[in-house]
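Design request, tokens follow.
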């Protein structure tokens, strides 16, 4: 373990811009023995202190210098969430190079595109699977000099390839470089500038090839000030700090997870706990019981569905109590949501009754008993889902932003939570809704530097007077909060000239635990239809309880009983909308949508054009009669 005395012998870094690396060093100096991270190894949570973390970051930075990485060079990371992801990220920023994250699900073709586009010189491939992807396309990556691998297993075929280096050997290389070049990393940190590009965040590519959004040190600092340190975000205005626990599980290459994990760690000293995998999130939530929790809508919908499935599978006595509690939660949620998220006399009394009987155990079981703030964003979510969670005491707040403005746009502040909106603009930022197009536009220090090697695409993102065009249609609610209508490019205009937002209808469908994906169709058509993907686990459980045998996803989706089940979901959704917005027909998708098949982006967003092409026969069938 590195002591405080050893840390302070290095040249001071406060003369440079306060980057993520500088902040991490500061925590190591102030609280060297405090826990910074935890990861699970052989079933036991292992702790990493701030002193240990900074020393590894410092050695990794020296390791990069030893490999010839220069300021401005790109270092790419292809890995699940783990300490090495953040260590290499911070080390890269420390020497003024640029981090490029990839989604773990990126196939070889996308790995080739991103690494070629950014010109990565050093690449971290977590394990054999990721190494095989890059080696499949290595002949088209002339800039790539070294591949770091974290897992030792499965690399026998590459052991004589000089381009590979094991993580432990990489850190040892850094140790040797540090001994020969003391203070080299600290001198580069002291030279950090606000406009240094710290990371390239590649867009999801729903309509074309991904583009690398350049975020600078100043973008990072502005994001920290506006999202993490802003007054009124957390209950009692008690800011995030070392007492807060965060579960890290969403891809760190996504700006949302980078903010709520890595940037919270650096700026506020919160403790990161790395989930073992996306499949163990529920189990890890129960073990960690985080105090701050961010999830994309898909995760909230999954937890929401799980609650009701478990409730239905309980004993008769427990089912009765669960039913009563959920009715109470509905009333509590409605009362709180009508009061900015705060309690009313009625909600307080109902919670006083049902919290010790049901809610406390329920929150413990889903791993959210200690959560004092929960957030959702990156995609639309149905208000009903948020209302149900607020009803049992999980205070979800929806917020809005995008990679290109460092996610700084709007937030539902504590006590002013208006469910169904994405909140109020952050204080002091430039925020407007174009009166002609309804497009949301922002102007502030968080707006990105541009797309990597894409000057024309960058220019298209800004208005003539310098405002960033988000591509999202919004509207004011009560003059203070903002509601997202849809992406401009997703608005449906029927043959009758009616403008319809498909996302509202799709989100309503997805409030059902039986629906995983929904895509509304109708542009240029007489009426709306939908392609719906069932939630395989939930519908499978329903089928088993009703004695309906099935073998595969396709077999289950073709069962008449399942089609009838989803018809009821569609009927309930149609009741919420005007007749012109009703879904007249639907078809169930014969397979689960998949990123590798080109149907979803890496962030699990539906590629509408691709879906319409792949399932054109189902769509034509709905409009043929």
């Amino acid at each position: 373990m590195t002591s405080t005395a050893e840390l302070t012998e290095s040249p001071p870094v406060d003369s440079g811009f306060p980057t993520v690396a500088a902040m991490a060093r500061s925590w190591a100096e102030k609280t060297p023995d405090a826990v910074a991270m935890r990861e699970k190894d052989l079933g036991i949570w292992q702790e990493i202190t701030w002193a240990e973390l900074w020393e590894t970051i410092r050695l990794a930075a020296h390791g990069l210098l030893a490999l010839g990485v220069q300021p401005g060079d790109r270092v790419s990371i292809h890995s699940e969430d783990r300490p090495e992801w953040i260590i290499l990220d911070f080390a890269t920023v420390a020497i003024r190079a640029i981090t490029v994250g990839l989604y773990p699900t990126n196939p070889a073709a996308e790995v080739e595109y991103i690494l070629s586009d950014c010109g990565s010189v050093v690449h971290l491939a977590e394990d054999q699977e990721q190494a095989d992807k890059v080696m499949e396309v290595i002949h088209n990556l002339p800039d790539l000099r070294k591949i770091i691998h974290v897992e030792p297993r499965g690399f026998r075929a590459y052991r004589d390839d000089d381009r590979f280096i094991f993580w432990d050997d990489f850190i040892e290389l850094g140790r040797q470089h540090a001994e020969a070049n003391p203070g080299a990393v600290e001198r580069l940190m002291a030279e950090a500038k606000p406009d240094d590009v710290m990371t390239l965040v590649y867009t999801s590519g729903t309509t074309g090839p991904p583009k690398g959004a350049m975020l600078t040190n100043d973008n990072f600092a502005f994001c920290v000030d506006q999202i993490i340190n802003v007054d009124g975000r957390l209950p009692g205005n008690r800011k995030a700090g070392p007492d807060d626990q965060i579960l890290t599980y969403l891809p760190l290459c996504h700006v949302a997870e980078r903010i709520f994990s890595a940037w919270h760690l650096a700026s506020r000293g919160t403790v990161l706990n790395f989930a073992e995998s996306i499949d163990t999130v529920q189990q890890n939530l129960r073990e960690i019981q985080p105090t701050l929790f961010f999830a994309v809508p898909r995760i909230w919908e999954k937890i929401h569905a799980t609650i009701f499935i478990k409730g239905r599978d309980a004993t008769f006595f427990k089912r009765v109590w669960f039913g009563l509690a959920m009715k109470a939660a509905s009333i509590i949620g409605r009362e709180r949501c009508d009061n900015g998220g705060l309690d009313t006399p009625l909600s307080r009394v109902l919670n006083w009754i049902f919290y010790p009987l049901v809610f406390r155990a329920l929150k413990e079981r889903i791993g959210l008993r200690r959560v004092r703030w929960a957030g959702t964003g990156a995609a639309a979510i149905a208000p009903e889902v948020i209302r149900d969670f607020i009803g049992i005491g999980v205070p979800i707040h929806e917020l809005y932003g995008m990679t290109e403005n460092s996610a700084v746009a709007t937030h539902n502040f504590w006590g002013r939570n208006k469910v169904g909106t994405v909140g109020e603009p952050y204080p002091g930022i430039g925020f407007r809704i174009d009166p002609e197009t309804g497009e949301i536009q922002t102007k502030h220090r968080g707006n990105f530097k541009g797309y990597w090697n894409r000057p024309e695409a960058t220019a298209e993102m800004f208005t003539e007077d310098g405002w960033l065009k988000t591509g999202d249609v919004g509207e004011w609610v009560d003059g203070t909060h903002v509601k997202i209508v849809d992406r401009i490019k997703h608005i449906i205009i029927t043959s009758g000239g009616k403008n319809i937002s498909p996302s509202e209808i799709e989100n309503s469908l997805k409030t059902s635990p039986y629906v995983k994906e929904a895509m509304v169709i109708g542009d240029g058509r007489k009426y709306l239809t939908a392609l719906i993907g069932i939630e395989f686990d939930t519908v499978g459980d329903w089928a088993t309880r009703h004695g309906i045998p099935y073998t595969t996803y396709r077999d289950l989706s073709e069962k008449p009983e399942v089609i009838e089940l989803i018809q009821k979901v569609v009927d309930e959704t149609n009741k919420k909308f005007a007749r012109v917005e009703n879904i007249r027909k639907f078809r169930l998708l014969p397979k689960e949508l998949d990123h590798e098949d080109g149907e979803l982006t890496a962030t699990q967003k539906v590629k509408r054009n691709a879906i319409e092409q792949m399932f054109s026969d189902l769509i034509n069938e709905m409009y043929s009669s």
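Comment from the thread starter after seeing the answer: thanks! The longest strand covers residues 468-477.
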